[in-house]
Prior knowledge:
This protein has 2 helices and 24 strands. By secondary structure, it is an alpha/beta fold. The chain has 2 domains: 77 residues, Rossmann fold, CATH 3.40.50.20; 107 residues, UDP N-Acetylglucosamine Acyltransferase, domain 1 (3 Solenoid). The strands form 5 sheets. Strands 6-9-12-15-18-21-23-24 form an 8-stranded mixed beta sheet, covered by helices on one side. A 5-stranded mixed beta sheet has the order 3-4-2-1-5, sandwiched between helices. Strands 8-11-14-17-20 form a 5-stranded parallel beta sheet, with no helix packed on it. The longest helix has 14 residues.
Amino acid sequence: MNENSSGEKITSNLCPLVIFGSGGHAVSVANIALTIGYKIEGFIDKSKAGFNLLGYKILGNISELQKIEALSFAIAVGDNFARESVYKDLVSEIPNLCFPPLVHPSAIISFFSVIGEGTIVMPKAVIGPNSKVGKFCLINTQASIDHDCSMLDYSSLAPGAITGGMVKIGLRSALSIGAKVKHGLNIGDDCVIGANSYLNEDLPNNQVAYGTPAKQIRMRKIGDEYLS
């Protein structure tokens, strides 16, 4: 997939977009898509098939779509592990689906940063120079990663989460609302940093940490729920 420095797909004709999910996050993703010029083809959610969202039909399965090769797709699932599972299930059934990164125009994206496929960047988010954001990440409203940071695949920043420079965020790890991370730290895979916490030391894999400063509270298993 060809991308520019902000991670937006380079194309003269945007393919209509199908969004997996039908909750509040799906509405936010639809808002970004419409803002940057996509046509919404519809939503897919087995649990709400037959209903409508924002005036668009909710389908139960991707097999109900026609001309799949002429469509783009987005996964509007807030939970990091669940988002990864949806993606893997989809591509095992239908390889080569197109998942463009979706970046709200109010976001500030460095020319020297890279954003992977399927990643969602919400309004007023910031991605600093030389930072690399993996595939299917979520950078929420007014969240910020500074220079030379790395977000591995399926990781997320909740609204208002902020990191200093040279921070590494592991696979599927989540910074909750208002969390802050000191520069130069390494956060392992499958970690959750609690809301309004301040992390000032490295965090190993599979940890829940919160407080100011944040402390390791307990281990967590891959896939444990953390959103409520």
